[in-house]
Amino acid sequence: MGQGLRGAIGPRAAHLCVDMQHLFGPGGPWPAPWAPRILPVIVELTGRAPARSLFTRFIPPHTAEALPGSWRQLYSKWREVTRQELAPELLDLVPELRRFTPPARLIDKTRYSAFSSPALLPTLAHLGADTLVLSGAETDVCILATLFDAVDYGYRVVVARDAVCSSSDAGHDAVLAMLSQRLSAQVEVADAEEILSAWRTADAA
């Protein structure tokens, strides 16, 4: 599915991994069953350029009442996910990825898109990033929100097809199909093997 890469990935690329936390892992309140399956692929992507990798963490509010509107509705339904009730360790990155920090950077966010964090754009500017390789969870929620913002900011966006997952197979498949049919001029979808073969890091440049 999708057209693959349109060319080499240069040394200014950054790897942005979204929300690979215990929160979304097996036994967490919002489990994405595929997360363990994609984890080795994310480890491989991170290992290519640890200092150019960024990991987001989704941080819920302390209470449902701390947020307005539909967010309050969401956390009123999922009060067990508010920090008032949630075990703090569930917010941590999975250990296979946490070991990369530092030099990989940690970006906390409270909304779906990684760009909702005030820290992300300055960090990408510091890295001189012109391309974002996206991995993580969930394809049809936080990955989708992040890639739309990345496109709006003008980044080249590459989704690692075998390094993203969702708790909904139908949602995951629908997003990948949509990307190939509607956004193929602005979003590239490719397997990690193809991405790693095309990625020219600074050390190899």
Automatic annotation (TrEMBL):
<feature type="domain" description="Isochorismatase-like">
    <location>
        <begin position="14"/>
        <end position="189"/>
    </location>
</feature>
<keyword id="KW-0378">Hydrolase</keyword>
<dbReference type="Pfam" id="PF00857">
    <property type="entry name" value="Isochorismatase"/>
</dbReference>
<dbReference type="GO" id="GO:0016787">
    <property type="term" value="F:hydrolase activity"/>
</dbReference>
<dbReference type="InterPro" id="IPR050272">
    <property type="entry name" value="Isochorismatase-like_hydrls"/>
</dbReference>
<protein>
    <submittedName>
        <fullName>Cysteine hydrolase</fullName>
    </submittedName>
</protein>
<dbReference type="InterPro" id="IPR036380">
    <property type="entry name" value="Isochorismatase-like_sf"/>
</dbReference>
<dbReference type="InterPro" id="IPR000868">
    <property type="entry name" value="Isochorismatase-like_dom"/>
</dbReference>
